[in-house]
Design a protein that fits this description.
The complex is a heterodimer. By secondary structure, chain A is of the alpha/beta class. Chain A has ten helices and ten strands. In chain A, a hairpin with a 2-residue loop joins strand 4 and strand 5. Helix content of chain B is 75%, strand content 1%. A two-stranded antiparallel ribbon of chain B has the order 1-2. The longest helix of chain B has 34 residues. The chains are: A alpha/beta, B mainly alpha.
C-alpha cells in the first residue's frame, strides 16, 4: 500500500536572513513542509535552523535589525507581509523552546495562559483544556493532583512537557520545537519524542533536533542546513540512508559536526 | 615577610573592622536619638497641637503634614514614575531621544534638594499661583523623587528574564498583555522597594518644602491642598535653630518620630524584598 502524498502546509521561497552585525543567517532557502508530518531541520550549530523556525511565527520581529527577504506561505497566506496579524499567527504556529521556561505562576495558569490572552474566560472551557493538553503532553498523570502548585516546582522534563501542553492548549496548526530535549535526560527525551508521534496526527510538527540521531529517530521529512544554506531535503529515511550530497553524508555519518 | 596565616588573619581583621566601622555611626545615631528623645514621647506629644511657641505640647500637625506630603507625593510620582520606567525598559528604542531622557534622569538625581525647592517656589508657588501649599510641596517632592522611582523601577523591569517575554509573545500575547500579566507582577517587589525608598527620601527632606509647603508654626491641620502645612523635618529645623529656650527633649523627640517614620518605611521595603526573594524559584 502506498501512503497518500501529504498535503503541503508551509512553502518557503528564496528566504534569506541577515543580522544587524552583518552575519548572514540564512541564504536563499526554499523548502516545502508537508502537513501532519514531522519535519526535522538539522545540521551543525550556526546553520540558521533556529532563525528559520522563528521566521515561521515571526518571533524574529522581537530581535532588532534582522533583515529578511523572500516569502513564506502558510496555507497560501504570506507570513512575511508587514501587515500580517502576528498575534493571530502565533496562535496558529506554537513554539517550544530549548530551555523550558515555565511562567512564574501555577501549573494550571501556565497551561491556560495562551487561552486567557485570547480572552477565553469560561471556567469550564479552561478546565477541559487543562486536562486535554496535559494528557496530550503526557504530563497529566504526574500533575493531576497538584495543578495549583507553582510550575517551577516541576522537574526539567516535566517543565518541558508543561511548555508543550501550554502550546497544545491553543490548538495551533503548526508546532515548532527548537531543540526541545537538549536539557533533558534520556527518559524524558523518549517521552517527548513519543508524544510527537501522536501529535503529528493533529498538528504539523517542525523540530530542530538536538542530534543527528534524534533527527533520524523522529523525522518523516528532513532538511540539512550548513552555514545558512539548505544543502539537501527530502523524506527522512532516504535522506539518512542514502544522502545525495557529500556534505550531508559526511555529517550524518559523523565525519564532522 | 608575613606568614600566610598571619596575612589571612590580618586581612580578616581589617575587613571586619571596615564592616563594623560603617555600621557604627548608624547604631550610634539611632541609639543617641532614641536615648535622648524617648523621654519626650508620650500620648500628648504625638497627638496634641504645639503650645507656648512650640516649647510645649505636641507635634501632631507636623506628623500629619509629613504623612500628607508623603502620600501626595506618592499619588503623583508613583504612577508617573512606573509608567516612565515601563516606557524606558519595554518600549523605548536606543536612540537620541531615550539617551537624552536617561541623561536627564541621571542629572535630576544629582541636583541638590534646595535647588528643587527654589524651582518649586518659582513654578508652583509663584507662577502657577498655588501659594505655599500642600500641592506645591507634593509636586516639588515628586520631581525630586521621580528619578529614584524611575531608575529602580526600570532596573526591576529589566531584571525580569527575557525568556518570559519571549514565551508570552510566542503564546499569542500582545506586548501590553505580556507586560501586564508577566513582567509587571514579576518586577513588582523591586518596583515597590524603589517607590518606598523614593518616598522615604521625600518624607525626610527639608529643603524642597522649605519654600513650597512648610509653615513655620500652624497649630491646626491643613484644611485643603492649597493650604500650607507643618512637617516633621522642617519643624525639627525650626525648633533646633529658630526658637530660643527650646527644651532639648522636644527636639530629640521630634527627631525620633521622624526617624521612626522613615525607618518603618525602610523596614517595609526590606520585608517586601526579602519575601519576594524567598518566593523566587527560578
Amino acid at each position: 500500500m502506498v501512503a497518500p502524498m501529504p498535503s503541503t502546509k508551509i512553502v518557503i521561497e528564496h528566504f534569506s536572513a541577515r543580522y544587524a552585525d552583518g552575519t548572514e543567517s540564512l541564504r536563499d532557502v526554499s523548502l516545502t513542509i508537508p502537513a501532519h508530518q514531522i519535519t526535522a531541520l538539522f545540521g551543525p550549530a550556526g546553520g540558521g535552523k533556529s532563525t528559520l523556525l522563528r521566521a515561521l511565527n515571526r518571533l524574529n520581529d522581537l530581535v532588532e535589525g534582522v533583515q529578511m527577504s523572500g516569502k513564506i506561505y502558510l496555507e497560501g497566506e504570506d507570513l512575511t507581509a508587514p501587515k500580517l496579524d502576528v498575534v493571530a499567527l502565533r496562535r496558529r504556529v506554537g513554539m517550544v523552546f530549548a530551555q523550558p521556561v515555565p511562567l512564574p505562576m501555577s501549573i494550571r495558569q501556565n497551561v491556560v495562559y495562551g487561552l486567557t490572552l485570547a480572552g477565553i474566560r469560561h471556567a469550564g472551557a479552561l478546565e477541559t483544556a487543562v486536562e486535554k493538553s496535559l494528557r496530550a503532553a503526557a504530563l497529566w498523570d504526574e500533575v493531576a493532583d497538584r495543578l495549583d502548585a507553582p510550575a517551577t516546582a516541576l522537574s526539567g522534563g516535566q517543565q518541558q512537557r508543561l511548555c508543550l501542553a501550554r502550546v497544545l492548549a491553543l490548538e495551533p496548526e503548526v508546532i515548532l520545537l527548537d531543540e526541545p530535549t537538549s536539557g533533558l535526560d534520556p527518559i524524558s527525551t523518549a517521552k517527548v519524542e513519543e508524544s510527537l508521534q501522536t501529535l503529528k496526527q493533529q498538528y504539523t510538527v517542525i523540530i530542530v533536533p538536538h542530534s543527528v540521531q534524534q533527527a533520524a529517530r523522529v523525522a518523516d521529512y528532513a532538511a540539512f542546513f550548513l552555514q545558512g544554506e539548505l544543502v539537501e531535503a527530502g523524506v527522512g529515511k532516504a535522506l539518512f540512508l542514502s544522502p545525495q550530497d557529500k556534505r550531508t553524508e559526511d555529517y550524518v555519518t559523523g565525519r564532522f559536526g | 615577610m608575613l606568614s600566610r596565616t598571619l596575612t589571612e588573619r590580618l586581612a580578616f581583621i581589617l575587613i571586619g573592622l571596615a564592616a563594623f566601622a560603617t555600621v557604627l555611626p548608624i547604631v550610634l545615631i539611632v541609639g543617641y536619638i532614641v536615648a535622648q528623645g524617648l523621654p519626650a514621647i508620650n500620648w500628648e506629644f504625638l497627638s496634641a497641637m504645639p503650645r507656648d511657641g512650640m516649647r510645649a505640647g505636641g507635634i501632631w500637625p507636623a506628623i500629619v503634614g509629613t504623612v500628607y506630603l508623603t502620600l501626595g507625593t506618592g499619588v503623583i510620582a508613583v504612577p508617573l514614575g512606573i509608567a516612565a520606567a515601563i516606557y524606558l525598559a519595554e518600549y523605548a528604542k536606543d536612540n537620541t531621544l531615550t539617551r537624552a531622557i536617561r541623561l536627564a534622569l541621571i542629572n535630576l538625581a544629582g541636583i541638590p534638594s534646595v535647588v528643587y525647592g527654589l524651582f518649586g517656589l518659582g513654578l508652583f508657588v509663584l507662577f502657577l499661583r498655588f501659594g505655599t501649599s500642600l500641592v506645591a510641596g507634593c509636586l516639588t517632592l515628586s520631581i525630586m523623587t521621580l528619578p529614584v522611582i524611575i531608575s529602580t523601577a526600570e532596573e526591576a523591569l529589566r531584571a525580569v528574564p527575557q525568556s518570559f517575554r519571549l514565551v508570552s509573545v510566542s503564546l499569542g500575547g500582545t506586548k501590553w498583555q505580556t507586560i501586564w500579566r508577566v513582567v509587571l507582577p514579576e518586577a513588582l517587589p523591586g518596583i515597590l522597594t524603589g517607590v518606598i525608598l523614593g518616598l522615604e527620601r521625600a518624607a525626610g527632606e527639608t529643603a524642597p518644602i522649605l519654600f513650597t509647603a512648610a509653615a513655620f508654626f500652624l497649630p491646626r491641620l491643613p484644611g485643603s491642598i492649597f493650604e500650607a502645612t507643618m512637617a516633621l523635618p522642617y519643624h525639627l529645623f525650626v525648633i533646633s535653630t529658630q526658637v530660643p529656650e527650646m527644651p532639648i527633649q522636644i527636639q530629640y523627640g521630634t527627631a525620633l518620630v521622624l526617624l521612626a517614620f522613615v525607618l518603618t518605611m525602610n523596614l517595609v521595603a526590606t520585608f517586601i524584598r526579602s519575601r519576594a526573594r524567598a518566593r523566587r524559584q527560578w
